Amino acid sequence: MDNESTYSGYSYKSSHSRTSRKHRDRRDRHRSKSRDSSIRGDKSVTIQVPREPLLDTESTRGDDRDDNWGETTTVVTGTSVDSISNEDLTRLSKDLEESSPLECRRFLVPALGGVLGLFALLTPLAFLALPQLLWRDTLDPCGTPCEGLYISLAFKLLILLISTWALFLRPPRAALPRFFVFRCLLLALVFLFVASYWLFYGVRVLEPRETDYRGIVGYAASLVDALLFIQYLTLVLLEVRHLQPAFCLKVVRSTDGVSRFYNVGHLSIQRAAAWVLDQYYCDFPVYNPALLNLPKSILTKKMSAFKVYSLGEENGTGNSTGQSRAVITAPARKRDNSHSEYYYEEAEVERRVRKRKARLVVAVEEAFTHIKRHREDEQASSPKHPREAMDPREAAQAIFAPMARAMQKYLRATRQQSYHTMESIIDHLQFCITHNMTPKAFLERYITPGPTLQYQDNSRGRQWTLVSEEPVTAALRRGQVFSLRRLDFSLVVTVMPLPFLSLGEEFIEPKSHKFVMKLQSETSV
Amino acid sequence: MFGEYLLYQVYSFFLAKIMSNSTFIPGQPVTAVVQRIEICKLRHGDNLILGFSIGGGIDQDPGQNPFSKDKTDKGIYVTRITPGGPAEVAGLMMGDKIMQVNGWDMTVVTHDKARKRLTKKNEDVVRLLVTRKSLEEAVKHSMRAPNNQ
Predict the structure, then answer these.
(1) pLDDT at B1 over 50
(2) Measured between beta carbons, which residues in chain B are less than 8 angstroms from residue A518?
């Protein structure tokens, strides 16, 4: 009960926009206990009393209280007494959750794979070296054939090394919740393989001190061949099999309905989820919680509509039914206006945004005309007015002032002001000036909301939760639905198979394209 | 003077509704005010001629027809009349749409078929049913006139 109430309290706050959270946070400091339990609860039946200090309500309203107020109140008063704003708390917790935890489990499988790979690579060399070290005198001399085998062995080992480095020695980009089945299978296969070779070697070569050195070198060469084939198998299973598209994934963001379709091959659910998240960071426009709310005026109107029940007789004459109909339709008509209000409000907002955008564009264009690139071979126009050369940062700061106000108003109109600080705007301006960009190129970053990658630094990892009804190592099938959840929104992914295409052919003779004028003949009879 | 009037379906309100020469309702028989014209073929050398030219047909381009009201009409129209020929004598006029020839339908035929039906060697007389816009107005007038009297 304790945990439940606190968690629900926090999540209630964090699911709303930051600006409204600020207001609620100010209210929360003066919060009365009755308000607390009404927020949390499905159990309490208290009346909302605004802005009463805590002690008064405690003393006067003790009887109406919810039974569990003793446990829950302490936590809440703890928050308000310490006066940490709720926004800070959620931001802290978000920061903690967002940075990917350095779990040991994350590096377990790659470390294991690395050790196994190293062991497998060193095994042929050990096979060759051990007889030389231990019973060199009794070995049969082995001339040219052995040397040929040495050369082939060396090159195969080199190829193995290079391809292992190219394919497998990459930092893992995603930490999947369950083991990656194929990878584990292949590691087990390599281990079994190398172990069985060592077993054979130990029993048949080391024990009886085999003297046929050429046979031993041939044995080592066959081990390297088999390792190459296992690497081919690894390549096919891990890298190539999922390249041919087989399913179409529809990804919808739950908060604002932005959706995309992607083609993937045969993957397990967790791999498909990791792949979808890669695409999400590039393709989806950034999630802006400020853009979601309907204007308050419309919502309150809708909520204040009331129902009318007519108590007249049902089988009345036309008059009475006409009256009751009139009574019912009056508030119904009042309710119906909310859609037209929404329409006009939307048109108004759009018009305002367009106006501010026009002002911004003009301001930026004008600002850009104030500077131009200074060429080294240019002479000063006149010795009396030397133009000092500025570096890009200073130039950006110089021309930022005239456009600052227009920029701020535009960002506020499109509710993007939380994504762009003044520093970031000046940085971007400096970047554009350095690369000779036009004002339009400078503005593209602010006019269209870019992908999420553009706004967030990637130094820390991101925490996502994969919610699925089937085990996440299961392969994708038609009709599966899984979702990827973050704190305040989630991506719902639906799997649809791509249709089987049966292509037919039709050959058209290039000379068969002929045309005639339409007939209009006249015959005399 | 006009010849006999033959009405396919005689309803006064139908006549009031007929705006064009004939009404085309898909699936229904075509209603039109028609005139029966009898032309006797004239022997001219080795052939029998009628003295007019036809245009149109289901294999022709209906947009080029200068006489049709509805430019999707693929019927057979009279495009020219030789002065003094048997067609002019019989009362055929330029721009008439031929609906029937000797009982054979001419509203949905190819140009060549229409020509063949008109130029059968063993027939001396062709009885055409033709329609034109002025017929409809004349019928309206005559319908109204007895009421006025």
Answers:
(1) no
(2) 60-61, 63-64
